[in-house]
Amino acid sequence: MRNGNFRHFTQMPVILALLPFILQHTMGQTYYDTHVENKLVAENSFIARNADLSPLPVFDQARQLLPKPVWEGHPDAINCYWRAWELAFSNLRLPQPERNGFISPFIDPAFNEHIFMWDSHFMLMFGKYGTRAFNFQGTLDNFYAKQHKDGFICREIKESDGHDFFERFDPSSTGPNLFPWTEWEYFLNFNDTARLKEVFPPLLAYYQWYNTYRTWKDGSYWSSGWGCGMDNQPRLPAGYNDAWSHGHMSWIDITCQQAFVGGLLVEMSQVLGREDDVKDIQTEILSLKQYVNEKMWDQKSAFYYDRYRDGSLSGVKSIGAFWALPAGLVEESRIEPFIAHLEDPAEFARLHRVATLSADHPVFNPDGEYWRGSVWAPTNYMVLRGLTKYGYDSLAFEIALNHLSNVVEVFNGTGTLFENYAPDKVQGNDRKDFVGWTGIVPITVLFEYVFGIRPDVPHNTIIWDINLTDAFGIADYPFGNKGTLSLHCQKRNSPYDEPSIEVKSNTHFTLILKWRGGEKRIEI
Is the pLDDT of residue 346 over 80? Predict the structure, then answer.
């Protein structure tokens, strides 16, 4: 039977008993439909949309439409930047509506011919800077087009036929839910209210599905190793599978993420005049903040942990705990000791920052071993965004520069980018030519944290937080749909010297210039 040969199976009564089951599955099993319809899905315009089959741009055509950075004395970082874009454009794909039902051209994660929710969120964090050459944001439209009538969206969908890769009630079927963050980042760069209006119903419907089917009685959230995206971290109690089980525990990253994206849905509702749709989310955010700080915080170690079924804390210091930062859940009295873990060489501040598992854990691997210590672009970007929220700009710059420098050093030796990186060595790991979310590092981390340029187009503002003393800048920087900027800073002797800058723009905006020694507002 193990070889599929029935002649070696002598228990004929068993075969006869199984025959109805075999025939049902061979002929196509029809299951009872347990979807509980969400009326918001009826507002999802992506489900019935015709596919966009516009020809894909190639990199040589797109290059002239991309931002052009310069950095005195660092040609290797600029070469890495352009190589990241070249790899990204090589991974563009057209939808095949008759085969997979996709509706929008998209960037492929370059992994296994599936689109991934987790990967796509972060690929678009750099894709937003290439919008004038290709609509990277449309990648998410293929997920919205596949939303189920109860609001569910699968975390992984096959490009071959458009089928979900997981059944929706599987513990690993979906997540992490970061759609609102990705859409909000795009909104901050382009002030595209029309898109925000379109995506709000599917985002809210999916949030509500997550709230219904991924919470425990106490309101905390759960997932699995695959569902949270960190496949092999040793987070679960003994006896549970790290990759596939929820372990009957409250997951710190998922609980914080829901508070984070819930807050963004509230902000979206204020832009769109749909505040009545999110009143329950506002209440939930307050409850989650209280839960995380009362039930998932350990005062002695000053850290947030997963909470086991018996109420005990896991004691595993995971990068996942730092989702409390962008979610704004860390209480003021706790922020300094919590962030101190990011600066401790015995924990997260390794040769290459930030390790995804604290180095004082028994299974921490100096080579990385996937999520047992490796440095990953998405979690580093989350940490940087969280530090920004709490005003730790200097530490964010320090981590960003370390991260970029290590990635560029590996690039110099290999000519490419990797899926993840060793924490204690200058070494790329696993998939190479991975753009993929690693494009965040030489593009987004370079722009937003090493160069310090962070836009807020809805408020017609740019923060330029200058920490470098080298001369640097960007030409053809996109600001909204029509704005094009050129921003350059001259070399300085000290980070405390006021920067001498040159800004050219075809549109008016307010520049908030920051440096170690001061801050000023400039009307451009």
Answer: yes
